[in-house]
Specification:
Blueprint lengths: L11 H14 L13 E5 L11 H19 L3 E5 L1 E2 L3 H14 L4 H4 L1 H15 L2 H9 L9 E2 L3 H16 L3 E11 L4 E3 L4 E17 L5 E6 L10 E4 L13 E3 L6 E6 L12 E4 L5 H10 L26 H15 L2 E14 L7 E10 L2 H12 L4 E3 L3 H10 L4 E2 L1 E2 L9 E4 L5 E3 L15 E3 L3 E2 L1 H5 L2 H4 L8 H6 L4 E5 L3 H16 L6 E5 L2 E3 L15 H8 L1 H10 L6 E3 L1 H23 L18 H22 L3 H28 L6 H22 L4 H11 L21 H23 L8 E6 L3 H17 L2 E6 L8 E5 L2 E6 L7 H25 L2 H6 L2 H24 L1
Parallel strand pairs: 1-2, 3-4, 9-11, 15-23, 22-23, 24-25, 26-27
Antiparallel strand pairs: 5-6, 5-14, 7-8, 7-10, 7-13, 9-12, 10-11, 14-16, 17-21, 18-19, 18-20, 26-29, 28-29
Helix pairs in contact: 1-22, 10-11, 10-15, 16-17, 17-18, 18-20, 18-22, 19-20, 19-21, 19-23, 20-21, 21-22, 23-24, 25-27
Length: 878
């Protein structure tokens, strides 16, 4: 094999897209026709069609791709089904902004023309995020790509809506909902974000009608007082004894409203013990209004402006402008008693950050509790397993206290509700197909409901609607239910819980058996990434600069299940790992002969201990990587591969193999064995690494000349009992300890790598003696020794130690340690003592042990052992 088969410099841009096109053209991303194989199915969390690849997309799709490639290589008939979501609110907002720049509006265009415009926009932008996912290396089966407004998915949505309606689980009613004045639509409770802010609390006097006294109320929203229809007090509050049933006069409007007693709404210990009731603009007030049959006055309209019911001087004002005016009028009249700073949570729209307006509106709802019960049972019985399990309590708490789901949206872009109204008799028809006439009166003037469904309604059907349900398609029969779902914890309720509910109700089976809820990617200081803060990491920029493999590996190794603090420097570190892989592979390819690729299998008993050791080590790594992947510990799996390849393979094995490979030691037969082991270990390493770093591993693996046409379809390594060799691991482990100890001694005593010493070994038994006589060259080469003498008496002044049960003695020549060297040693001791104290404090901290990733805790413990050993050596020999 020629040394120049791999370029001297690793250039990810030169290989990544070339290999992706090759894989796709060969059909490697699609399931095979052999349906007898064990199968693995997973669906993509569909990104918005408006989307661009962000770091969150990069994380979730990297993890899904790792699992998919691992399963595919492990012999599973694997389907990773991709697609995008129509993103009702977001897409409509984007197109409406475009129209506004042209001086147009959707109202002027009309529904049909506007929808045509949106579909055209979708066609122009549909491949943006798809192409970006391809750059990441996502091995999706693009031949099965789905869109939530595809004809097949639309049919599934209508089927579900109609069935639920006729089962009594979908209904239309007047209720208090969350209204976004900017998006001009209702939104569900979980689409509301509560943001802490400091505002104003206004204390206002409401005078009794007879003028005998005033009742003081407190509010953060004085503009809503124009819609007050009562004042409530607690029935047992002595301060208001005898006032129930009397009237107060509202400041500004002069309307008379009753004083009512309500023990549910009013807490006599809080504030003044009196509460203003605005049934049309507050959820708690709405419920109180229902209990007391209070009128509902809507004084804020759908655009967030004051309505005609607010009265002259206010109609048409923005609600916050009205607040300012009302406060001024209250001050002028003397009704405003006090204004205080007040910290409270403001409800905002998750889509556009606009302050939500609670509003009474007629909407469509899903009666969700009956659907939630079997979904709760599925998680309790572990038919569906949430990973990490800590999310179970959150899931149960929400599901057991669930509210009916408002599913109608006042948009034009989306799944239109299949409900029809007869203008003749008012009959409501819910049908799969548009009716031609009214079955009640025979009338033909029928209007379809103008609303569309919440985007999450169609997304809740994603695992089965994408496979052809309600038909019993081949994909439904083969790949449903899917096996795993990987997604962010932040959409546990938006999406995951709803998929479980819908999947069980309509197919009888949960849509997946395992749900991995990964953390969010934050900046290195743990802050949420934000364009305004300037801490956003653009994955495409990272790919352009460092390659997709480096980004993927970084995301995998830090995905411990918690939020990921990500800095660009970390990706640089794993770009260096990619270079290490490349350079080590170039070295190996320079020493692997072409004819070795077709040679017979290696006779393990004929191998030298160092070859048996590296085969045993990769076998152990293989076992642990497969175990980690089986429980979705991507961080553990990637760290195991990293530690093996960088340290055991590159730092130790290649260096220990060089004397034989370069002809400085051993016979030709031993050299051939070393080359064949080098080939086997490199091959196994690349296949282990492929799901994490697909591009670089394919480029290198092609040079190895394997039987399979691509590493993508090569078998994933599995542990083999014949490769286990504890004896070789123990013996080579002792050699490594000796080399490390001698290197440290050399440095401690101020010698350079050019200085050569004699090493004396005292062995206990003939096998040990034979081993060191045959393998002493490893110590000579890697520890820079002049000679290794076995079972000979060392000089009296030699430095002695006991390593792995073997007594060693290093003969150092007399050398005066300079004051500079003493200062260097003293400084290193000081620094190590500080690091030791810091590490001990962490390990004594129960919070650190409980919350830090297991890998970090273990590394802290391992580092402590290293520091203690180093300090002992420095103090002994300074």
């Amino acid at each position: 094999m020629k040394a120049d088969e791999l370029d001297k410099r690793y250039d990810p841009a030169a290989i990544e897209q070339r290999w992706y096109k090759e894989w796709e053209s060969r059909g490697y991303f699609s399931p095979v026709e052999d349906r007898e194989r064990p199968r693995f199915a997973i669906v993509i969390p569909p990104p918005n069609v408006t989307g661009r690849l962000h770091i969150g997309h990069a994380l979730v799709n990297t993890l899904i791709d790792i699992v998919s490639r691992w399963k595919r290589m492990s012999g599973f008939n694997t389907l990773w089904l991709p697609g995008t979501d129509h993103a009702g609110i977001a897409t409509q907002m984007v197109v409406e902004r475009e129209l506004a720049r042209e001086g147009l509006s959707r109202i002027e265009m009309g529904r049909e023309a506007f929808l045509e415009r949106v579909w055209n926009w979708k066609e122009e932008h549909k491949d943006v995020i798809k192409n970006q996912l391809m750059r990441l290396g996502a091995s999706c089966d693009w031949s099965r790509e789905r869109f939530t407004l595809d004809a097949g998915l639309t049919r599934a949505v209508r089927e579900v809506f109609v069935r639920l309606y006729h089962e009594g689980l979908i209904y239309r009613d007047l209720a208090m909902i969350n209204w976004c004045p900017r998006c001009r639509t209702a939104i569900s409770d979980i689409e509301v974000e509560h943001r802490d802010q400091t505002g104003r609390l206004y204390l206002i006097d409401y005078q009794l009608e007879d003028g005998s006294r005033a009742i003081q109320i407190a509010t953060t929203r004085p503009e809503t007082m124009l819609g007050d229809t009562a004042v409530a007090v607690h029935p047992d509050d002595d301060r208001y004894e005898g006032l129930t049933g009397k009237m107060v006069v509202l400041p500004i409007s002069g309307r008379r409203v009753p004083i009512i007693a309500d023990s549910i709404l009013v807490d006599p210990e809080f504030g003044t013990g009196a509460v203003k009731i605005t049934p049309a603009h507050d959820k708690n007030d709405y419920l109180a209004g229902l209990r007391h049959s209070l009128p509902q006055m809507q004084v804020i309209d759908e655009g967030g402006r004051m309505s005609s019911a607010a009265g002259d001087g206010f109609e048409g004002l923005d609600r916050f402008e009205a607040r300012t005016l009302i406060v001024e009028m209250l001050q002028s009249s003397g009704a405003l008693r006090e204004t205080r700073q007040h910290a409270y949570a403001v409800a905002t729209c998750a889509k556009c950050d606009t302050v939500i307006e609670p509003m009474v509106s007629r909407q469509w709802f899903v009666k969700i509790a009956p659907l939630a019960e079997p979904a709760i049972a599925a998680v309790r019985s572990r038919e569906v397993t949430l990973i990490p399990e800590t999310w179970e309590s959150t899931y149960f708490n929400w599901m057991e206290n669930i509210h009916d789901w408002c599913i109608s949206r006042q948009l034009w872009w989306g799944h239109r509700i299949p409900a029809y109204y007869c203008d003749g008799c008012g009959e409501l028809l819910v049908t799969l197909e548009a009716p031609e006439s009214c079955p009640a009166c025979g009338g033909i003037k029928l209007r379809q409901d103008p609303d569309v469904l919440d985007t999450w309604f169609s997304s809740a059907l994603w695992p089965f609607s994408t496979m052809g349900w309600p038909d019993k398609s081949e994909d439904v029969e083969t790949f449903y239910p899917t096996d795993t779902l990987i997604t962010g914890f932040d959409i546990l309720f938006f999406w995951v819980a709803r998929m479980i509910m819908m999947g069980i109700h309509f197919t009888g089976k949960p849509p997946f058996s395992h749900v991995l809820l990964h953390g969010l990617v934050r900046d290195e200081h743990g802050r949420k990434m934000s364009k305004s803060v300037g801490n956003v990491i653009d994955p495409l920029e990272v790919i352009d600069e460092l390659g997709a493999d480096a980004l993927r590996f970084t995301l995998a190794i830090f995905s411990s299940g918690r939020d990921i603090p990500l800095a660009r420097s970390r990706t640089l570190g794993y770009a260096a790992f990619a270079n290490k892989i490349w350079n080590a592979s170039r070295f190996a390819l320079m020493h692997i002969d072409e004819e070795l690729k077709d040679a017979d299998s290696i006779m393990r008993e004929d191998l030298a201990p160092v070859e048996r050791w590296i085969l045993s080590r990769i076998n152990t790594t293989t076992r642990e990587v497969n175990r980690a992947l089986s429980v979705y510990r991507f961080d553990e799996a990637s760290n195991l591969i990293y530690q093996f390849f960088w340290h055991e393979f590159c730092d130790w094995y290649i260096e220990m193999a060089k004397p034989v490979l370069l002809g400085r030691h051993g016979e030709p037969a031993q050299r051939d064995s070393a080359k064949r082991v080098l080939l086997e270990v490199l091959d196994r390493s690349l296949r282990l690494l492929h799901p994490f770093m697909p591009f670089i591993t394919e480029e290198i693996w092609q040079k190895l000349g394997g039987v399979e046409p691509s590493i993508m379809v090569a078998p994933y390594p599995i542990p083999e009992e014949s490769l286990e060799d504890r004896e070789a691991e123990t013996l080579i482990g002792v050699i490594q300890q000796m080399i490390t100890a001698i290197r440290n001694l050399r440095s401690d005593k101020g010698f350079t790598s050019k200085d050569r010493f004699r090493l004396f070994l005292a062995c206990k038994d003939p096998r040990e003696t034979s081993f060191f006589l045959q393998n002493g060259y490893l110590l000579i080469e890697l520890a820079r020794l002049s000679e290794v003498l076995v079972n000979q008496i060392p000089p009296s002044g030699a430095h002695r130690d006991l390593i792995g049960g073997v007594e060693i003695a290093v003969e150092f020549p007399q050398k005066v340690v300079s004051p500079d060297q003493l200062m260097r040693i003293a400084k290193e001791i000081e620094q190590l003592e500080i690091e030791l104290a810091t590490g001990d404090a962490k390990l004594a901290n129960e919070f650190f042990i409980a919350r830090a990733p297991a890998r970090v805790v273990e590394q802290t413990r391992e580092r402590r052992v290293e520091i203690v050993a180093r300090l002992e050596s420095l103090r002994k020999n300074k």
